[in-house]
Amino acid sequence: MINMFSNKALRSSYLDLMEKCLLNTIYEDPSLHTGVYEAGVREKGLDCPRTAHTMIGTLRLRNLRNLTETVLSEKVPGDLIETGVWRGGACILMRAVLKAWQCSDRRVWVADSFAGVPPPDIVNYPADHGDVGALHTFKELAIPLEEVQNNFRKYDLLDEQVQFLRGWFRDTLPVAPVTRLALIRLDGDLYESTDVALRSLYSKLSPGGFVIVDDYGAIAACRQAVGDFRAANGIAEAIQDIDGSGVFWRKRR
Question: For residue 149, what are the CA distances in angstroms to 8, 20, 31, 106?
Answer without folding.
Answer: 29, 20, 23, 18
